[in-house]
Amino acid sequence: MRQTHNRNSSGKFCKVSLQDKFWCNVRVSDANQCWEWTAPVCGGEKYGRFYDNNRRIQAHIASWVIHNGPVDEGKFVLHKCDNPLCVNPNHLFIGTASDNMRDMVAKGRFVGGTKLKEGEVWLIKILLKSKLLYQKDIAKMFRVNRNTITAINVGKRWEKVQL
Ligand SMILES: [Zn+2]
Q1: Is the separation of the CB atoms in 89 and 34 below 8 Å?
Q2: Tens digits of per-residue pLDDT, 37-56?
Q3: In angstroms, what is the span from residue 56 Cα to ligand 1's centroid?
Q4: Structure pTM?
Q5: What angle, 0 to 180 degrees and rounded to 10, lies between the N-to-C axes of helices 146-153 and 135-142?
Q6: DSSP letters along 15-63, please?
Q7: Beta bridge partners of 51
Q8: Inter-axis angle of helices 97-106 and 118-130, to 10 degrees?
Q9: What residues are paired with 56 via a beta bridge?
Q10: Ligand 1 mean position to 162 CA, how many Å?
Q11: Where does residue 10 rank: exposed (0-12), middle (13-18), buried (19+ CB within 10 A)?
C-alpha cells in the first residue's frame, strides 16, 4: 500500500493545521525569553516564514494570528525585542506602517546602501503606497537614487516584490 506522510495513524488523510505547522518549528522557552523560529528562513530576509495553503506567511505574523486573531489591514506585527526570528506572542505588538519604519530605524536595521534587498524594496513599496513620505525622502533614507524609487513606484524595477 502506498504511504504518504499526510495519513494519520488510522490511515485517513488528515490536514495539517496552521497551528501544527507553526509549533513544529518553534523553540518555545520561558514566557519572557525569545521563542525562535527554527525552520530555515528565505534568502536575504530575516523573518521566519512558512507556507499555509500555498500562502507564504511570516512566522511572527502567524504567531500573532494564532494568539490574537487576524491583523487589521494596514497594520503590522512588530517586535518589542530586536529579534526578527522571535515568535513569542509576548514580544509582539501591532503598529502602523510608520511605527514599523520608526522601529526599524531605531533598531538600526537601516544601514542603507546602493543595492537594495528584497525586504527593503517591500518596505519602500509600503511607504510609496502609504504616501507618508516624498519619493526623494524615501530615496535619501535608503541611500539610493531618486530614479530608483520612481522605477519601483511604476513597476519598472523589482516588480517581483509584491505587497
Ligand atoms: Zn523575542
Answers
A1: no
A2: 987 665 555 677 777 677 77
A3: 21
A4: 0.56
A5: 120
A6: PPPHHHHHHTTEE---TTS--EE-SPBPTT--SBEEEETTEEEEHHHHH
A7: 56
A8: 140
A9: 51
A10: 27
A11: exposed
